Fold these 2 entries.
Entry 1:
Amino acid sequence: MFYFLPREALKNWLSEISKVHEVFVPVSPSGFGPYEGKLYLEKKTKLSAKEFFLPWREVILKFEARPGALPSPVFFEPVKERIIFGVRPCDAKGLTLIEKVFGEDPFFQKRREKTILLGLLCKEPGRECFGWAMGVNPFAGEGLDALFLEQAEGYLVKLLSPKGEKLFKDQEAFEKVGEEAQNSFKKAEKEFLEKHPKAPALEKLKEADLLKLYEADFWEGLALPCLNCGICTFLCPTCYCFDVQDEVVGLEGERVRLPEACMFELYSRHASGHNPRRSPVARFRNRFMHKFKYFLDEYGEPLCVGCGRCNEECPAGINLWEVIRAMSTL
Amino acid sequence: MIPYPARIERTVVETEDGLLKSFYLRLLDEEASREFSHRPGQFAMLSVLGKGECPIGIASAPSEKLLMFTVFRTGLVTDALHRLPEGTIIGLRGPLGNGYPLEKFKGKNVVLIAGGFAVTTLRATLVYLLEHRADYGEITMIYGARNPGLLLYKPELEAWKKRDDLKLYLTIDREAPGWDGLVGFVPQITEQVAPSGENAVALVCGPPIMIKFTLPVLEKCGFKPEDIYLSLENRMRCGLGLCHHCNVGPFLVCKDGPVITLAELKKLPPEY
């Protein structure tokens, strides 16, 4: 089902639905925020919508800080249904990849159920984007409830899920459109896919031998500039590792889930001091083996959506493609 | 998963240096206590609110009433645990992990090889095997510690020595006054005992150096890699296969392990 929204009507519509739902939009090149009139839609934001589902700090238990106290579980329950508008298709696809692992986690599930994701197709690929090479078809809108395609006069909206259909059923600002509009969408999709095919590297990676990849000698050279700073994991829409810490202030304690990066030395250090991945090279190798071999073998897709944020922000100038190329041409 | 409250019913200092303590726990909720059912080889996350959690192998057999864990005092959480008096309530999340596939061992000879305090889950396994003695062939246990003071479960070892349906070999690394048993490292004793790999499985738990030298001995005795079982350890956080801390290549120790055969281990990258 397709709808059409005239360009001038977008902001009004966002204001209208803000009265009934909590609405989040990209407010600046940095990331998302509640809709208060400002909107940034030129390019994808630095932070993806990952934080709405895997928040930076998630309390899972509350307790009194004394020996023998019993914990009280905490379950986050979004008060109102949330709508996140302006999510890029690559970020939404990242969410479906995370869901393969977190599908049964109650915290992730509750947030997912109470959130409606409205996607926005990019006008053109960003400088470092390569989502199509990773098998992401932005026009398919995986993970989204509706997808907006910007055209000359306004936005063509494709509904993708029952949640999306329910939302748009009574929205007066949107008019239903017929076959001609659907065809223009399909044409845009066809043109895109012809110019941007999936990378053959993925098939080669599936067939590569795990231990041979692990013992390859290109890892040292590629990992040498890496500072193990973790920016790539922080910005990545598919990285999901978390740490669990007990935080105590005075007599009140909380057990929280925090973001964690496999690039840190503490990530795999045992209490005895032994560390299976003591060297920075080992940790660098582990991250890419996980994304492009272990996950690929288990789920058939790489744990990467080609958003290119890691390439843009890496302070050491490491380019993901060099790693993928080295891994797939072994 | 939320930690179940559990009371420390009893603590026993197992070793002379005081670093190993056994905790006997009872789940507060009676229904949870009745329904808790684990397999030897599985572990649980012991939770000290305010400090954190640590994964500890379950050293009690499924039939025993209290859940027993033997904890080595080495880090933040284990140190806090050691300082708790009997009667304190801590948290427990479990059972986690895969445990030993004991059904596959029926009708076979079972060789348990333990070094140091890795004997904890093998104790659970041995108690279970002895309870179902008729299902298994010859049971051999080789258990070594650095010195007599570091042997765990000393009263039980005395009782097991007297049994005639179990071959128990206790050894210490170097001569010590008052010890008239075997002397030698576990791999050397294993070579002397030379259990046959014919229709047998070997369960090996111990420090990496001991495992490194014991495996060639087992190979010489005819054990196939699919019949040698090891137990991996790694830093953990969630214990549920989500946070990915404990991965050894594609293998998550908390979810796919900790028990793994040597055949499977050879396919994994050597990062453990």
Note: Chain B touches chain A at residues 2-3, 5, 48-54, 74-76, 78, 84, 88-91, 233-235, 237-238, 241-245, 247-250, 267, 269, 271-272 (CB under 8 Å).
Entry 2:
Amino acid sequence: MTMRKVAVVGAGMTRFVRRALETPKELSWQASRMALESCELTLDDIEAVCMGTAPDSFDGIHMNGEYLADGAGAWRKPYMRSYVGGGTGVFVPIQGWYHIASGMFDVVLVVAEEKMSSYYPHAQAAFLTIFDHTTERALKPNLLWIFALEMNRYMTTYGISKADIARVSVQHKHNAAHHPCALLGDADITVEDVLNSEVLAWPVQRYDVSPVSDGAVAVVLAAEHVAKRLTDKPVWIEGVGWNLDTAYWTNRDLVYPRYVEYAARMAYEMAGIREPKKEIHIAEPYDPFDYKALHHLEGLQLAERGQAPQLYIDGTAALDGNMPVCPSGGLLGVGNPIAAAGLMKIAELYWQLRGEAGDRQVPGQPRRGIAQAWGDLMQVGTVVIMGR
Amino acid sequence: MTVKIKSFPGTSLSEEDFEQGKILYNYDELNGKFAWDNGIAIGRYLASLKEGVILGARCTTCRKIVVPPRIVCEWCFRPMHEYVPLQDTGTVNTFSLCYVTWDMRRVKDPEIPAVIEIDGASPLHGIMHLLGEVDPQKVHIGMRVNAVWRAAEDRSGAITDILYFKPLEEV
């Protein structure tokens, strides 16, 4: 099977805010418009549109993909919304990638949008419906439960301290202080601040968690012959992977995300990467909670099991370290409008690898980066490797 | 952010904008009502809970014993015909002390959700439930627990027929 090369050639995003005045369609259009402007294309150049957005229950709109279609410029074009829970934001560029790699289209617009604030008063309650209606929902579970249960299992198994996990939150929020779209950038936050924040569901505290947010991100993908005419600096999609584990999440060990490993191995094989720790220069693992970034770095084979905190302790993960982690500021710092947050990581790699990330720019002309998202009932891994 | 982009769209609203009527908004309540069929395997599971038994299912191909039961082994993709009554004791695999409810109301005494590996099921096979009759500070991974059942005449064939799990020994 021959697959065509696919590049990211443009990107745009809105600010991530707790509650946006703009409707989901309006946010989608703003991001889409910016992505098109950034590569000087118009909607006429776009052959197909891929849309990513998470559960309809946030918006209270059934068939949200259809509702958003005009905001994403999809009318009278091949259009489909893909959805794999929190993993959607990194899956939707994969959908765009196979549209082009297959030879079907040359230029595709990829849009991810989330407006979580409409669910009133707090989006948390909408998550009740992700649990099994008969065997779990009667216990009135809270979304925080599953993260707290997984975090406790992870830290207790490896003897990792809360303080070491808090370093992740601190560093990502520091990085986000340089991101113009960030909701929770904070250049002054300390490990003590995280450890002293409100206990929500021990071991999870307030500053261990990313915020509920509204926002949208869009990127333009193009086939090689188009990309080379559009820009001197295309950023290639070198590998993609996705994988799903069992939904019976109480029937497997939560200590290690095997599905992330499988997705990563699929992407590494496609990209010809044998030693990820050496060949990946920037990592954007999914970080809705601080421990999740560690969990995912291990699944991505960028740290040994139980050893990911060391990357933050010895400075490897710092903005000027050997492998900066979440230079964007991640979900903990920039914000977590679910599908948009994943695609934000793709946009970040695009800007970083082109040397356009401003104050957040990773030094040393990084050549290759990895973005990953995670979702559904703790069971989905989606991975994209990008390089120049 | 990118250095080439000078301004970013997106207008942030605050709670006051709503309370003080500075913006117009539409409020509605969606009231969906559902009746879910339990199916074959979960139907058996719930009927057993009513009898005070936690039921698992065994795959005759890979010999895994899973809980709750299901009609197909997700790994072998073969039918699972064999139902196995399990113990109502188990081991805490992981737990949390949760100070917020499902709809984000704060509570003073934490709820203690846990994954409990059920005795008789394959290793690491458990269910999510609550712990009770225990000092939250003394709960630990590896703690042995047993189910506290609702009185037989009050059981309805639901996961809540188990009120919670409590420590087997005094902690």
Note: Chain B has a mean pLDDT of 93.
